[in-house]
Design brief:
This protein is of the alpha/beta class and about 250 residues long. Helices cover about 40% and strands about 10% of the residues. The protein contains eight helices and seven strands. The structure holds nicotinamide-adenine-dinucleotide.
Length: about 250
Amino acid sequence: MTTTNAERLAGKVAVVTAAGQGIGRAVAERLKAEGAQVFATDLQADLLSDAEGMQTGQLDATDHAAVQAYFAGFERVDVLVHAVGYVHQGTIEDCSPEDWRRSMSITLDSAYNVLAAAVPKMRGAGGSIVTIASVAGSIKGLPKRVAYGAAKAGVIGLTKAVAADYVAEGLRCNAVCPGTVDTPSMRERVTELTEQFGSYEKAWEFFISRQPTGRLGTADDVAAAVAFLASDESLLFTGQTLQPDGGITI
Ligand SMILES: NC(=O)c1ccc[n+]([C@@H]2O[C@H](COP(=O)([O-])OP(=O)(O)OC[C@H]3O[C@@H](n4cnc5c(N)ncnc54)[C@H](O)[C@@H]3O)[C@@H](O)[C@H]2O)c1
């Protein structure tokens, strides 16, 4: 059972991207449960129709102008969680220029857009940025993750550079790097591999076998790590990668 501290984020204004489902939604719910005023955004506004107790908005994080316009509406942002990402499954031989560009656009360019718009609203008052990266990339090379790994390595590099630029004024920036997490898009990837593995169950077993703990992560596992980094309990953490990865990187 998950326990939350209902006061830990009281008074904080939090913006979450990709909050429509999966990890982003679990993060938005967790930040709300811990007392933050949550602004939940997603490309697909309809996915947010059942989000209660938070302000919701449609936002395409790959659209630089739209992201600038969205953050212009804020006087102050205390917590930013950027969860947008896209997994292309394939080796470098499987990765077309279009696959590569799509990966960079959704995973890395979006992080640039969102952090560039949010940082001016977060300066001077402390605050915490959390990017959702992955163990795949600069932490570990995983098979068939060439574009994804490269883009997520970029997200970690961006995270560390922003941390370095603003550390003196108390604005923190950390990356949460999950292993395999049971989310709607992860299930789509299992379906895509069904033919290769012979059945959905065998493809599912493949993903579990990558986790030494023998189970997939849950979106709530990841949200717990994000809430810690968003809170003042993690004031000594900046420029770090925190890895709820089920032992992948032992
Ligand atoms: N699921 C995993 O196993 C896993 C592991 C490591 C890291 N991650 C990362 O966690 C993040 C969330 O993954 P997930 O599996 O929970 O998500 P998901 O793919 O199930 O959901 C992604 C959400 O992002 C939204 N989205 C897509 N493009 C967008 C855009 N341009 N602008 C705004 N929103 C957009 C979608 O509408 C959707 O609601 C991603 O960055 C992903 O790379 C996931």
